[in-house]
């Protein structure tokens, strides 16, 4: 069974403002999370930030773009992307 990935309203508003290569990386990441789950060790600078919070880099350099997601329910496999944007403003 696949995971269900949702976006916060803030993330949904931020996506169109991202550079095209970053948007493309984000969509690939979301597809991988849906099919394989929240742990994405194959992505650059992936790490677990807490019990159920994960992050990785979508683009390195200046500025660095990151995505942060949270497992909201392990039993029914729900994940919510809580941040997408520059590294400087990331919530960690």
Question: Quick gist of this model?
Answer:
The chain has 92 residues and is of the alpha+beta class. Helix content is 25%, strand content 34%. It has one domain (4-89): YaeB-like fold.
Written overview of the protein:
- It is a single chain.
- By secondary structure, this protein is of the alpha+beta class.
- It has one domain (4-89): YaeB-like fold (2-Layer Sandwich).
- Helices cover 25% and strands 34% of the residues.
- Strand 3 (53-59) and strand 4 form a beta hairpin.
List the helices and strands and how they pair.
Elements: E1 4-7, H1 9-14, H2 20-36, E2 47-48, E3 53-59, E4 65-73, E5 78-86
Parallel strand pairs: 1-5
Antiparallel strand pairs: 2-3, 3-4, 4-5
Stretches with pLDDT under 50, minimum 5 residues:
none
Rg for CA atoms: 12 Å
| Discrete helix count | 2
CATH superfamily: RelE-like
User: Could you describe the largest sheet, including whether it forms a barrel?
Assistant: 5 strands, mixed
Structural class assignment: alpha+beta
Q: Quick one: how many beta strands?
A: 5
Key structural traits:
92 residues, alpha+beta, YaeB-like fold
């Amino acid at each position: 069974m696949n995971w269900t990935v949702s976006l916060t309203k803030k993330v949904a508003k931020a996506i169109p403002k991202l550079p095209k290569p970053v948007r493309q990386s984000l969509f690939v990441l979301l597809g991988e999370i849906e099919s394989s789950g929240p742990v994405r060790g194959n992505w650059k600078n992936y790490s677990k930030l807490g019990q159920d919070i994960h992050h990785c880099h979508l683009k390195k350099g200046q500025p660095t773009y990151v995505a942060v997601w949270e497992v909201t329910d392990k039993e029914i496999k729900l994940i919510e992307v809580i941040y997408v944007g520059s590294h400087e403003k990331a919530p960690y």
